[in-house]
Specification:
By secondary structure, this protein is of the alpha+beta class. Helices cover 20% and strands 38% of the residues. It contains five helices and 17 strands. Strand 14, helix 2 and strand 15 form a beta-alpha-beta unit. The longest helix is centred in the C-terminal third of the chain and has 16 residues.
């Protein structure tokens, strides 16, 4: 298995670092770091990447500023391919490159929806706990990193927060093959909000994602039917049903 880290934002944006199996890599400002940063907000020894044959782990090394995944401060976690993390003011993306045949095979174990990694959250809360008066969205991926689950809640009315979500949503599409929209807690969708949602659908279609729509409230279902979204996605009552279809390769 081959792996690499890409700096996606910061002073050294665009730099890529290959990672080899069964090796630990130190990230920090120290001259002895395997991945040395000029970022003044990073610690001399900031964090470590542990790579082996079965998984890759990210460990904070007691840094002063912390190591963050999806806005959450971490100590030691498993990071699947596609995970983004922040060290000081530097943003990384970890990419694991596996056997091409294995990438096309989605096992039942990797589809357990309890095994989700939070990628990004908008409005500071969980989609399922959002107030009906506020917009909230959260992106998850399964451990196989091929499936993106997008939970949208509250009011989608085309405001600034909606467009922040759209921008972040597009950034996480690059390596995804399947996309599940969970609308269970979406309470209101006006014409501008429909425009944002359709832009999500269009971006996913351009990325050749197979799309699923689950848990639609009746009022939202009617609106999306009117604008033709139903013709572009597979409809299921639950996330579990969509996952089952993905697993069976229908």
């Amino acid at each position: 298995m081959a792996h690499h880290l890409l700096i996606t934002n910061g002073l050294e944006k665009g730099k890529s670092f290959p990672l080899t199996d069964n090796t630990t890599f130190v990230i920090g400002r120290s001259d002895s770091s395997d991945i040395q940063l000029s970022d003044a907000s990073a610690s001399r020894v900031h964090c470590r990447i542990h790579v082996n044959d079965t998984q890759t782990r990210l460990e904070d090394a007691g840094s002063s500023g912390g190591t963050f995944v999806a806005g959450q401060k971490i100590t030691d976690i498993h990071i699947p391919s596609g995970t983004e993390f922040r060290v000081g003011d530097t943003q990384f993306r970890y990419q694991g490159i596996v056997d091409p045949l294995a990438e096309t095979m989605v096992s039942e174990e990797t589809l357990q929806i309890t095994q989700l990694v939070v990628l990004q959250t908008w409005n500071g809360g969980l989609a399922g706990q959002a107030s009906s008066k506020n917009f909230c969205a959260e992106l998850f991926q399964t451990e196989c990193a091929q499936i993106l689950i997008c939970k949208i809640a509250g009011i989608m009315n085309g405001d600034e927060k909606n467009y922040e979500f759209l921008e972040g949503f597009r950034e996480h599409l690059s390596d995804k093959e399947h996309l599940v929209f969970d609308l269970e807690h979406l309470t209101h969708l006006n014409s501008s909000g429909i425009g944002v949602f359709v832009a999500c659908i269009t971006s996913a279609k351009e990325n050749d994602c197979k799309m699923f729509l689950v848990n639609q409230p009746d009022n939202i279902r009617s609106l999306l039917n009117l604008v033709g979204v139903s013709a572009l996605v597979q409809i299921h009552d639950t996330t579990e049903a969509a996952m089952e279809e993905i697993r069976e390769g229908k």
